[in-house]
Design goal:
The protein is an alpha/beta fold and 380 residues long. The protein has two domains: 127 residues, no CATH class; 244 residues, no CATH class. It has 17 helices and eight strands. The strands form three sheets. Strands 7-6-5-8 form a four-stranded parallel beta sheet. The protein has a two-stranded parallel ribbon with strand order 1-2. Strands 3-4 form a two-stranded parallel ribbon. Helix 7 packs across helix 8 and helix 14 runs parallel beside helix 15.
Length: 380
Amino acid sequence: MRAAICDMVTVARLLNLTMVVPELDKRSFWADPSNFGDIFDKNHFIDSLRDEVRIIKRVPKKLGHTSADAFEMPPVSWSNESYYLQQVLPLFDKYKVIHFNKTDARLANNGLSVELQRLRCRVNFQALKFTPQIEALGNKLVRILKEKGSFVALHLRYEMDMLAFSGCSHGCSEAEAFELKTMRYAYPWWREKELVSEERRSQGMCPLTPEETTLVLQALGFRKDTQIYIASGEIYGSERRLAALRAAFPRLVKKEMLLRPGDLQQFQNHSSQMAALDFMVSVASNIFIPTYDGNMAKLVEGHRRYLGFKKTIVPDRKKLVELIDLFQNKTLSWDEFAVAVRLAHVNRVGKPRYRNVIVDKPKEEEYFYANPHECLSNNK
């Protein structure tokens, strides 16, 4: 949501058009009924960008349109300025109101003017504040954690939908693997091609399992008394799959353990609002470690760079599963395994650097929001 909103504000600025406060997708797997104003501070969003883009709360009646009957189109993914100026802008002469019905990854990572790149950052880091209720509870979580010392935020992407979507079932029973495959085939936009779990894993395309994560954290040198906050939804397999991680790191906590039941009541059944709390804690943590490089992990990484290049360890999953298998079949000793894991992550800790560019392969490039170097100082 954050990335798409930032991109569309930037497109509106480029085309000198009025933007209507975005509508959020309510038809995804999570089916979250939250509106923009349930997650973000709408008035702050509009006011803080007043000198850049005119943003209104609804389509004016005089135009004779609502968002429901406006001309709909999905912009082409990873598009640059010329696409929007030459192909999209002329459409407004005909339709007056256009509803972009897909907005994720519709603006290029690279090749844009510095002015537009910095606007993307301004929207992300300054205009998109969470609601006062989310901010208050997120800050309370951070305060509770900090009172107990430093802490690691572990974005453990081992929820049922993540595994079904990615086609990954390593470590699951046959019944669980069947359940995940059944879920995958229940969603037409997930079943586009047959996926083989072990092939995906060897390619680094699967989230690390809780058991694999345990070995990686130990190899990286985290001690038994490390305070670890799990930033995620319900872990597939629940406490059974967390057993190894909890045994190795007894100070494992979740928001449900730190807050009173009444604190979370207003956010229950609103997955995006619950994720916003985890987002705040992850940004504030001493160290952030995602087990999968999804959108939230990338956005948190970028926020932490913006806040002074706070330490973010981004696991090299392809290398890690290779090392884990070698250790578990006794080809590598523990010491050899630990040294190899640490060496593989020396340069994966969120240090200043320019974003990687892959010419003519925008989907494979480093994501702008993970490393918005145009907006950061001390880049190398």
